[in-house]
Design brief:
heterodimer; A: alpha/beta; seven-stranded mixed beta sheet; 19% strand; globular; B: alpha+beta; eight-stranded mixed beta sheet; 18 strands; 23% strand
Amino acid sequence: MAEKEDEMVDKSSPRSIELPDKIRVFDNLKNAKRFAIDIGGSLTKIAYYSTISQRRVLYGPLNKEESASYEETLMYDVSEGARLHFIKFETRYISHCLDFIQQNLVNARDHMLGKSIKATGGGSYKYTQLIHEKLGLSVDKEDELGCLIKGCNFLLRNMTDEAFTFCRHATPEYTFMKAQSHIFPYILVNIGSGVSVLKVESEDKYERIGGTATGGGTFWGLGSLLTSAKGFDELLALAEKGDHRNLDMLVKDIYGGDYQLLGLPGDLIASSFGKAMHAQIQKDKSSETGSEYSEADIARSLLFTISNDIGQIACLYAMMHNMPRVYFGGYFLRGHPLSMHTISFAINYWSRGQVQALFLRHEGYLGAIGAFLKGAEECDSDKYSWMENLAGSAHELNFTIDPMQMEPVSPPANLVLGQLEMDRWEHPVTCFPILADPENYNPDTVDLNKDAEARNYWLECFRDATSKYVDRAIQSQPHSETAEERAHKFRDKYLNRLQYLQEKPFAYGNLTVRSLLDTIEHLLKEFDFPDPYLMQKKQENETALALLPARLQLLDQLDEMDKHHELVKAILAGNMFDWGAKEAAALMSQNGFGLDEASSRLQKRPWLVDGMDCWLRRLDGPAHKCAAIFVDNSGIDIVLGIIPFARELLKRGTDVILCANSAPALNDVTHSELQELLRKVSTMCPIIESSLRDSRLVAMGTAQAGPCLDLSRVCRNLTNTLVQKEVDLIVLEGMGRALHTNLTARFTCECLKVAVIKNRWLANRLGGEMFSVICQYESHGDN
Amino acid sequence: MFPWSSVSKTARLDSSQYIVATRQLWTGAIISDECQCAACRSLAMATTMPWFGMDIGGTLCKLVYFEPKDITPDEAELEVETLRNIRRYLTNNSAYGKDGHRDSHLQMNDVVVRGRRGALHFIRFPTSAMGKFLELAKDKGMATLVSSVCATGGGAYKFEDNFRKVLNLSLHKFDELDSLLYGLQYVEMNSPTECYYWAHPTLDGKCEKVGYDFSQPYPFLLVNIGSGVSILAVYGPGVYKRISGTSLGGGTFLGLCCLLTGCNSFEEAIELASKGDNTSVDKLVRDIYGGDYDRFDLPGDLVASSFGNMNSKDKRQMVSREDLARATLVTITNNIGSITKMCALNEKIEKVVFVGNFLRVNPIAMKLLAYALDYWSKGALKALFLEHEGYFGAVGCLLQLHCSSSS
């Protein structure tokens, strides 16, 4: 670990370079295992694979020494995570970048000797020699379009919110698609210098069905001839300012208005640049009738001309092959709203809404990803799943580069234009098998892109809460000399991110409470705070365990109905013990705040959503076969709320799977902590003991590591077990899993959603008060 | 305001519904009951000469004049002097002012229009010179002869007020696409060498125009390349639908050429293009892949990116105006060819007829279209051309005037 912390503080020899928003790039180079490069005419993308070592707390039976402080007795192991890095920079700095890589391949150099680098893109021919010289690697050239498709498949499968539709001036303008397992067939339109239209039917079956020479190169070439813009981005910026109506002949220029017989509106372009001849002549002769035009007008007309044309041609191919999904990639778009708008408009217009134009958040990386994946065992889509690392990725969606800032001060410090990092899930993930409508499943209850009021509230809320996370992080490592510095870096980066999201809420895909929470977890991990709530959780678990025998005794004395009622109420009361919620945290800080105190704070029945009676009636019926309970907080919540509830189900003859996070998030109980807890409980309760022994009670990891729950990405082991055990009851507990997410999710079996609303704003929004209760029972028939 | 925003709300022609004209165009048995306007009725009563058809496009105004050749001595005596003067002015000149031209090589002698025998004359002038045209017509006394003129094209709407104010004439407007098809069919029937194709379009020595028998035309795709492009699928007499179009048309070629080379006319642009070479302006497949792109069967000399070399300052300095004009022509033409090909395949139509003034004095474009259609469809599609390229709308308009006047 010493080495890792050294790296954090060592500023004398930078091993990474910083993006404008303080994101480190070319990180982890010393651990780089394999490289791929996609060299385009203007932009180059480098991909590499590295293993990252992150501390992970081992939670298990410890030999405590009375004299040692708790932290000193903690055991860490170092987990080897796999990470994919994708870096984007301008091709003209390729030499600098290769030097930088060469100098920083500390451990990898020997390892890399004699190996090869996959290369794709038009420039892979031109720079073969340079790469070989700088890195000592032989260069394997990979087919460009094949790489694009491989990259596209990978992103569509693994990246949530990768694809989106764009509708200018709509609310929201960006509508994101979920990561899907069924991605074929589709059409990929790659807009590079020219345009290629590819039909993709499976991982291996694809063909180039056509294309057009009118592409990004045409825009750039004509733009360079007709304006003084210096580069592609300057041309785009110019187009933003122009008015195409000075050069394009509109329907109304010909008709004087709409052409109603054909339904052609007056503002439709009838002839691109159709007015240019007269505009020019009359400008020269200063005549009165000709329209004046500017360079910006030319750039805009040009952009419309090219984008419209590509949209129309793509649409014709899509209709010819009867494929309604068309993805656009390539350097032309680079998230530019005006281009995306024009293409979407053209596709919609010519297909009468039958064909959908879809764009990709990481379209620029397709080639590099694909080249990297060629023969990469580490990325086998059958074996591994990946997710975006929200800490390490920097996006340029809607990112127009100011040309004045393009000149690098001291290469390569400012030359990197963007990066993407993807982490491998520890376990492969898959879609939850019991969802009623997996294709349309959307975990998040509120779309903060769409809902400006909610967005402003939550961004502010998380901004306010940042200091709490910082304090907690520092406290969790009292003996570390670097904890404070790292925690402050965490704070700065998170606040920066919130600011960025305030301006560009769609930059990382859909903005949701879940994504904001996940970002915190990713950042904490990145700054080596593997589990800030560790001590807290441990103490609370122990406190709660001490109360458990008496609690079980009390419950066992109640009659059936009172007992079931009490069991649900205890889950609710237990759910108050949530350090993630500001007002609950304040209560918990009071001395002697226990289950009864929490219970007294709960909303009185009838609750905001009160399915209690339905649930109790259901319990009159036959026992469930197997229940899967997604648990929330450590301490009273899990020990006095969930475990007695599970115990009662076990007594009724129902098997129970307790599903917990695989890695820490806030004070949520983790899978390994849960196993340890159950071991302890089994010494107190024979029912738990025998159930564990008979595997009627099991604890399993969800693979997730955030306070929310995305059921489209759940550990494959868990889903296999759910199917095998024929789960017929799902219990979702807590705000994160039953309110921020999954409130509207429907299942093919019964479901109980139980949560206390510990946020005043949200409670009010849902029509209730602080500490309102959601107890929603959905019988199988509700579907 | 962003001009597209209102567009999607506007109702559009549903192409699933064919436009079935009420007139039986092909047989000449023409019934028109659609126009009951005052202008129409007055014309119907008078059938007053002169007979004109106008097609006022975005760039060019096409004027077709019927010159009666069967004037009897009695008639000649009755013919007012103004009318005689107009006839002589139009038929004795081939240029009118600075902007008007008569395409004398297209003149159709000995045709019958509504029982009268005579010649059709084909005249064009830039739509931007409409003001001058109106003044000229006024000087020639047009307004004293007739009270209405037949017109189609967008300008029939746009310039309606100007005709009324300057000439005191009302415009009798006809549908553009109906007129186009009607005119096409009439001219094709009356001009035996109207339709042709280009044999061996890429071989300089062997390339030639070959006559094509268009007497069994249906179905065919009609691609009208004016300022913009309209693509119609024609299934039978008067049965067609507009299936597509593009704003990248003749106007785009001319506009870009003017901006790129400083030329001032279509003729000049074509002249420049005929001397240029696009291969240094465009990025070819071989410029990217060093040769053919075998994986996808793309030949090395195929254009991969139109103007794709022009982002480089060095390469910009190496190209001439002629090269730029050629590249513009090739870009626009190939693009039209590409869209046409897909429309034809989608509609399962093999015969493609290209018309419109973009093709005037433009064999480069015609040969490119012929080659592109043949190449990309692997010989399945045939590109056909018509001698009277851009005048069909005006002819159709003229014929329809007389149709309505007979009812």
